[in-house]
Amino acid sequence: MIKAIVGANWGDEGKGKITDILAENADIVVRFQGGSNAGHTIINKYGKFAMHQLPSGVFHENIVNIIGTGMAFNVPYFKKELDYLNERGIKNPKILISDRVELLMPYHILLDEYEEERLSSKQYGSTKSGIAPFYSDKYAKIGIRITDLFDEQLLMEKLENVCAIKNALIVNLYHKEPLDPKALFEEIKGYKDIVEPYLENTAVYLNKAVKEGKTVLMEGQLGALKDPDHGIYPYTTSSSVLAGFASIGAGIPPKEITDVIAITKAYSSAVGAGPFVSEIFGEEAQILRDRGGDAGEYGATTGRPRRMGYFDCVATRYGCMLQGATQVVLTAIDVLGYMDEIPVCVAYDIDGEITRDFPHTDMLSKAKPVLKRLPGWKCDVRGIKKYEDLPENAKKYVEFIEKEIEAPITIVSNGPKREEIIYR
Ligand code: GDP
How many domains are there within the chain? Predict the structure, then answer.
């Protein structure tokens, strides 16, 4: 059986914690897209971890963690995360890397930086992890596949070709030093020793596992509104973050994904540029940011303060629809305990027209939130174990949101720790 854990919003919904919990009963955890550009925060018996590229199952000894073909695989980062885990007591996690995954190259990161510099005030808020240049190259078919590392002549030829293309941009548009294919070759030739022990035909491995009845978790990164097709393009990421894409990025039949668990937070937050209809500002935003999560609302990868907003029913219903959510986890309900009244965005006003359907980006930029104010519960709900024991207004809040997003909320998370979880 395959379950997907995916974001219903802009990312940072708390997927890491939920994956870590659900991994307990899983055999395999798979990352199917993205790279080290977003992080999951996981707090467990080993401490607090910010995971970027490795699947969240690495903390469980019996779980096989798969780097799927759909990912942007950064080898030095992989090594860094392995070493970091090792230093903190997680020795030799079981990892398999797809033998078809492509490498995120040093020049992808450079090109990301140069482009953001060129765009200056018009930048999209890239994390400068090289993700957009990576996927551009993949689909332009000039990517470097992981197995290219094992054929030095082929690798050198590919690097010469790619450097010729990149240097036209680097020299003429960005006015920077050109890439040297030989230097690049020297820089990456050692990668093969790092990855060799982990290489596997992961699609075949996974399909066999599914036939044998193993439980597989597909771990999404970011959230539906960052999807390049359906999200707030161009303020999106560059690979699909939808559960449907898990089938492609991992290589398993779509019909096998029978449970899609969409994660949404009890309020909104986002990093990067782009329209954010229910955004709040100033002191009001700062209070929510500081209360949000143990570490405050600062991105796990970039440390950037997140933009804050009220819960957005329009965006979340759309996110759950795109993900095909069979169930929803509402996280961070504990954060709202200080508010007298909790506004939620129930519709958008676009030039006087009221809509509940999430529009394309240009329309979205004009949208104003239509707010409904729900009564707060004014107490700390951390430590509560049963849904019935939540304050009446907290239950009403959950039930209101559930109705608006048109998907069942089966789990409520009331704190960052593993045990702070309420099953309904
Ligand atoms: P992900 O990318 O979706 O995994 O989200 P992040 O890990 O970047 O962000 C979620 C943040 O919220 C982390 O700091 C978590 O520790 C924290 N978190 C997760 N669930 C809860 C919750 O129920 N309450 C609170 N207060 N924090 C939570």
Answer: 3
